[in-house]
Design goal:
It is built from four helices and seven strands. By secondary structure, the chain is of the alpha+beta class. About 30% of the residues are buried. Bound molecules: coenzyme A.
Length: about 150
């Protein structure tokens, strides 16, 4: 099931984060997670009481856009469609909040994630040079939900 994260999920979220990202990919700290759980929209995918993945969405009041700030699935649960379910949840959430655009940044060598976003009709709209701490570029990708 997919539900909003709470502070009891912190250890699981940090575990997923540390296995998924390094300092060259803006890995989130404990403080970052606490902040986002309280202030933003962080959904977790839970199965048999285990948190297997998460998606963090940022909304701004006067914008029609939602930003997928981060998405990760625990290595042991990859390839099972969990990221797909979390992304679909974000589409629904956007619609419920009258947002018509979903945007994200992804490292240009992150083939798995780029394939995932393309599968759900995200389009590459621009490239941000030296976006990450290791100076690699980011693709900005976006999906229009309705116009
Ligand atoms: C990218 C990530 C979120 C995918 O999670 P997942 O739950 O394994 O993805 P799904 O099972 O829903 O796969 C959906 C699609 O993603 C793509 N994909 C997933 N794993 C892939 C792989 N190993 N190789 C290529 N494409 C892959 C495919 O298009 C797949 O569709 P298909 O099964 O029809 O081929 C996961 O690999 C991850 O957490 N990676 C580390 C963190 C990360 O890079 N996050 C994205 C930051 S922008």
């Amino acid at each position: 099931m997919i539900r909003l994260a709470n502070l009891k999920d912190l250890e699981s979220l940090l575990d997923i984060e540390n296995k998924s990202f390094d300092d060259n990919s803006f890995a989130m700290s404990r403080q970052n997670f606490i902040y986002h759980i309280k202030k933003n929209t962080l959904f977790v995918y839970e199965e048999k009481s285990l948190v297997c993945g998460y998606i963090l969405l940022l909304l701004r009041k006067n914008s029609k856009k939602i930003r997928v700030y981060s998405l990760a699935v625990d290595k042991s649960f990859m390839g099972l469609g969990i990221a797909s379910k979390l992304l679909k949840k974000s589409f629904l959430y956007a619609l419920e909040n009258s947002k018509n655009l979903i945007r994200l940044e992804v490292k240009i060598n992150n083939t798995k994630a780029i394939n995932l976003y393309k599968k759900y009709d995200f389009l590459h709209i621009k490239t941000l040079k030296s976006y990450y701490p290791d100076k690699s570029d980011a693709f900005v990708m976006q999906k229009v939900l309705f116009s």
